[in-house]
Amino acid sequence: MQFSIDEVSKEEYSAVVGVWEASVRATHDFLKPGDIERFKPLILNQYLDMVTLACIRNEAGNIEGFVGVAGDKVEMLFVHPATMGTGMGGALMHYAIHSLKVKKVDVNEDNSRAVAFYKHIGFKVEGRSPLDDEGNPYPILHLQYQD
C-alpha cells in the first residue's frame, strides 16, 4: 500500500474529524453514550488548532490517519479503522518521533490495542492517572519513548 505523510490544511479539518470519529467508534468502546458527540465539536473547533498536525494519505490523496503533536508529546493519533494494521499508524509515529522529536504520549488505559501499539514502538509506561484531563473516570497511562 502506497501512502505519504503531509501537512493538513484548515480546509481538511472536517476530513480529519471524520477519521477521528471512525477510529474512536472502532476502538473506544469504554466511552459513555454521548461522549463522541460532545468531543467532536471540540476536536474540530479547538483541539486541532492546538497541535502541529501531520496526516497520512492514500494513493488517491485522501486522509487515512493523522497525528497531532504539541511540544514533545503526541496529543492525538488516529487512523481510519479500515486501514488499521497496514502500517499507517507506525509510519505516523515514526514521523512524529524522528521529525517532530516526540518523546511522550498519553493513552487511555482501556484502549488495549493502542497501549500494545505504543509499547511495540518503544514506549514504556512511566505513570498513571485515574482520571482523564477533563476529570472523567477514564484512566490514562503516561508513556515515555525509550530510544
TrEMBL record:
Signal peptide: none annotated. The keyword Transferase applies. Pfam families: Acetyltransf_10. The keyword Cell membrane does not apply. Keywords: Acyltransferase, Transferase. GO terms for molecular function: acyltransferase activity, transferring groups other than amino-acyl groups. It comes from the Bacteria. Residues 11-147 form the N-acetyltransferase domain. This is GNAT family N-acetyltransferase. The lineage of its organism: Bacteria, Pseudomonadati, Bacteroidota, Cytophagia, Cytophagales.
